[in-house]
Amino acid sequence: MEYLTWYHYGVLLGMFLSLPAFFIKNHAYRKPHLIIFWVLVMIAVWEIVGINIARRGINNSIYANLIFVYTETLLLLYFFSLIFQERKIKEIILISGLLFVAWGFINSFFIESILFFQTYSFAMGSLVLIGWCIYFFYGILYKDWYAEKNLLGVPMFWIVSMILFFYSCSFLYFSSMRMIFEMDRELMLQIRNLNRIISVSMYLVMGLAFYAPLIFKEKQESLPR
């Protein structure tokens, strides 16, 4: 385990911090919590296995694409389908997920090889998730979701805020990665480390978010309708 860095330990910590929350009495957010927990488990396992594969000189890009680019995006879309209760919105989320998968096949066969990190697919998935984050905050501002509650006590507020922050920054990073690398490799490494800090922050917040109703003394009520 000597090859693990602060980044890997941060992701693992987020996963382990999320576990005790399953034992919260009258857990009103159990399904969203379960999805986020599986995201944390998947990413933690991938980060450890992925770096081990890379250390052996094996190209791990195909696994990065399947796990980080596609599976994580689809799980987060499912998470959004759980917190949005309007049937029409759920259908649109499903359609956006299917279109993303279709784009993935097109991109893999005709544009970017699955054997290399697919920046186009990541950018597409990022835009889709950013769009649903914006809709979440639109619901808070204009549809009075959680109007009777302190937003700091709502787990989804923390998680969606970090998803928006991380994917907005990562979209800019991965979209311009090749150009930055050609201009200044040292700058690219610095931006990469900054992106990892944001990434770890997101996973840690995901691990802690479902304690928010206890910390801020909020009653766990039903999700917005």
UniProtKB/TrEMBL annotation:
Q: Which residues form the signal peptide?
A: none
**Keywords tagged on the record:** Membrane, Transmembrane, Transmembrane helix
Which superkingdom?
Answer: Bacteria
Q: What stretches pass through the bilayer?
A: 6-23, 35-55, 61-80, 92-111, 117-138, 150-174, 194-216
- Spell out the protein name for this chain: Histidine kinase N-terminal 7TM region domain-containing protein
Task: Report the source organism.
Answer: Rhodonellum psychrophilum GCM71 = DSM 17998
